[in-house]
């Protein structure tokens, strides 16, 4: 579990970053409410009979860019940057188990991301009671969702960091996982439409958009989930648990001898290279078909995609980065 001495060491190592992120997430929600109230007072001054104070967290108003971005920065610093600077090797040389090291880092991430937003939520509720807006829309749903989704992003980057040997690989792996469901469904559907017509494509995307889109982690940056059922948030909760388990297992089993390689677990190199090449073939093939509306363009695009996918995957996965 979490050791107090290790917790203190991790805290002192990134104390400034932890405090900056904590304070930013603590005050971002109350500040947004005060900003809305300032606009309301300004409208009330110029248009006395038209000014209305409404707090609306509908998707057109807010996104989770800041919350997710800060979770990503935190995880990159705790795993990727420490590995690139050799600090992770020093931490692992201390008399603590690998499980204790990972869980301590994860525990600090929970404190910084979740507790700050929880306190920000309570402060925002106090402001709502004091300022008495005319109506409040989607506030509780958005606040709970921001905590869940920012934590999901953090867990994803931590898992990617436990799998990979440098910062670029960590970010690329996390981004690939974040869009993977759309690639696995969208690219085959696009290529299927080349042979079966647009109706098959439209049908596939209708099923995808109605029931499967919330299994794509990156979709939560946009706030449209706010208008859906609160039970939608169970999906990112499940993904957070899954990412934590993957990260914890990887941190325990994949040692640091391959620092600088794309993956610490070399058995992943070939399957990932194959997957990237297949996606290149499907993506460039459909692009070639669209450019000329012909099977010739489709075939040429697939050939180009195979070459591009192979080269990109080969030089990114097999080229070791030296620190």
TrEMBL record:
Top-level taxon in the UniProt lineage: Bacteria
Record keyword Nucleotide-binding present: no
Keywords: Membrane, Transmembrane, Transmembrane helix
InterPro entries in alphabetical order: ABC-5_transporter (IPR053046), ABC_transptr_acetoin_YtrC/YtrD (IPR023264)
Taxonomic lineage of the native organism: Bacteria, Bacillati, Bacillota, Bacilli, Bacillales
Spans traversing the lipid bilayer: 16-34, 102-123, 143-164, 171-190, 231-251, 272-289, 295-317
Presence of the UniProt keyword Signal in the record: no
Protein name, as recorded: ABC transporter permease
């Amino acid at each position: 579990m979490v050791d107090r001495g290790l917790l203190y060491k991790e805290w002192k190592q990134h104390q400034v970053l932890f405090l900056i992120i904590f304070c930013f997430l603590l005050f971002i929600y109350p500040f947004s409410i005060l900003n809305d109230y300032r606009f309301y007072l300004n409208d009330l001054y110029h248009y006395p009979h038209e000014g209305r104070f409404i707090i609306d967290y509908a998707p057109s108003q807010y996104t989770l860019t800041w919350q997710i971005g800060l979770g990503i920065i935190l995880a990159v610093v705790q795993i990727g940057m420490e590995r690139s600077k050799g600090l992770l090797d020093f931490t692992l040389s201390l008399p603590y188990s690998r499980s204790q090291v990972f869980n301590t880092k994860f525990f600090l991430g929970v404190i910084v991301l979740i507790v700050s937003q929880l306190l920000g939520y309570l402060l925002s509720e106090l402001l709502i009671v004091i300022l008495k807006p005319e109506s409040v829309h989607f506030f509780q749903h958005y606040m709970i969702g921001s905590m869940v989704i920012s934590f999901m992003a953090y867990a994803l980057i931590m898992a990617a960091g436990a799998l990979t040997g440098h910062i670029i690989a960590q970010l690329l792996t996390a981004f690939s996982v974040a869009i993977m469901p759309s690639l696995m469904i969208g690219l085959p559907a696009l290529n299927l439409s080349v042979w079966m017509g647009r109706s098959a494509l439209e049908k596939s995307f209708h099923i995808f958009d109605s029931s499967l889109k919330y299994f794509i982690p990156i979709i939560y940056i946009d706030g449209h989930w706010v208008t859906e059922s609160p039970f939608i948030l169970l999906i990112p909760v499940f993904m957070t648990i899954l990412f934590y388990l993957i990260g914890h297992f990887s941190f325990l089993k994949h040692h640091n001898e391959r620092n600088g390689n794309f993956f610490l677990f070399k058995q992943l190199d070939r399957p990932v290279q194959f997957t990237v090449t297949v996606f290149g073939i499907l993506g460039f093939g459909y692009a070639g078909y669209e450019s000329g509306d012909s099977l010739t363009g489709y075939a040429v695009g697939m050939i180009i995609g195979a070459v591009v996918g192979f080269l990109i995957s080969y030089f990114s996965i097999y080229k070791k980065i030296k620190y």
